[in-house]
Amino acid sequence: MKKAFFYGFGIILVLFAIIFLLSGKNGKGQQFKLVSVERGAIAEKALAVGTIEPDNEIKVKSTISGIVSEIYFKIGDFIKKEQPLFKVSPNPTPLEYVEARRNMEIAEVTMKQLLKEKERRLSLYQDRLISRSEMDDMDARYNEVNLRYKIAKEKFQLMEKGRIMVSNKNINSIIKSPITGVILSQNVYVGDPVVPLTNFQPGTELCAMADMGEILFKGTVDEIDVGKLEPGMITEIQVGALPNTKVKGKLLRISPKAKKEGNATLFDIEVAVLDSSGKTLRAGYSATAYIKIQEKKDVLIIPERLVTFEKGKQYVEVKEGGSVSKIEIKTGLSDSLNVEVKEGLKQGQKVVERPPREIE
């Protein structure tokens, strides 16, 4: 009898425990928060992902070949136009050196021979044994040969020493800055060879520089939003490296042609930076741009997560008195977090927010 009593009592305790747990779980499911309907501003924005880039980045190249012998800057330096950047020392091959020297010597011999001929013709002309036209032809021939000699000599001197003086102008192998700006990157160092820029080859890229006073946000926007965009729209840029800084911009350009990235169809855009909030923006910063499409102020708004959809209609739960009821509403503009309420709710009403369902 005692054993039967204890067995029965144990079963009753287990049943009570199960009932208590179930009732606690159900009670927890009935808990909810109340959110007030408020007035505020709401804006529809398009999202673009990209980077901060200079408007015009210059790749500095050389028009002469050789070896980098000196560098006059460090990365990040501010450089003025015509300021020296590199010194490139000539480094001709033995064949090029010998050929240039022999061409100069041949041109010199030819010039000296023609000089003697010119002096002889001048004597004949003074004795009136040849005409003026013959003397003029001789002068022209000599001037041409003399010019060829100077060209060969200057070419050899430039190849040998890296500098010459032509018409009181100093020509050397110093590479100077084409613009006023900041050095972004350096691609060659002392001792590196330099291939010149010609009509047949791109040449060695020595360094990159840009005017960081004119910077852009360059990114991509999804095809869903691109039809709503127009140049001139106000943009707010959030830079990943500066989380507490909001950069203001203006939409400049929208690409007329889409590009594919995976399964997404994207369009390139450019945004001019108008105000960096006193922060230094560096080329290559990753950033996100929010382009304001339209905005409404002083409207009723609630969190969009509170709205449910049934058969094409929108509903929320409200608490009035001690009961909770479902009512139909009409919504308007959304920013993906909050939504405008056009009909169905009043300011100050309490909207029910149910807790998320637990996974069993």
What does the model show?
This protein has 360 residues and is α+β, with helices and mostly antiparallel strands. Among the domains are: 46-54 and 212-295, Beta Barrel (Elongation Factor Tu (Ef-tu), domain 3), CATH 2.40.30; 57-90 and 173-210, RNA polymerase II/Efflux pump adaptor protein, barrel-sandwich hybrid domain (OB fold (Dihydrolipoamide Acetyltransferase, E2P)); 94-169. Helix content is 26%, strand content 44%. It contains four helices and 22 strands. The chain has helices at residues 2-29, 94-126, 132-161, 223-226; strands spanning 33-36, 38-54, 57-61, 66-71, 78-79, 84-89, 163-166, 169-172, 174-176, 181-186, 193-194, 205-210, 215-222, 234-239, 246-261, 264-275, 286-303, 308-310, 313-320, 323-334, 338-343, 350-353. The strands form five sheets. It has a six-stranded antiparallel barrel with strand order 2-13-16-15-14-17. A hairpin with a 2-residue loop joins strand 7 (163-166) and strand 8 (169-172). It is rod-shaped, with a radius of gyration of 41 Å. Residues 20-29 have low confidence and may be disordered.
Overview features:
single chain; 360 residues; alpha+beta; Elongation Factor Tu (Ef-tu), domain 3; OB fold (Dihydrolipoamide Acetyltransferase, E2P); 6-stranded antiparallel β-barrel; 4-stranded antiparallel beta sheet; 26% helix; rod-shaped
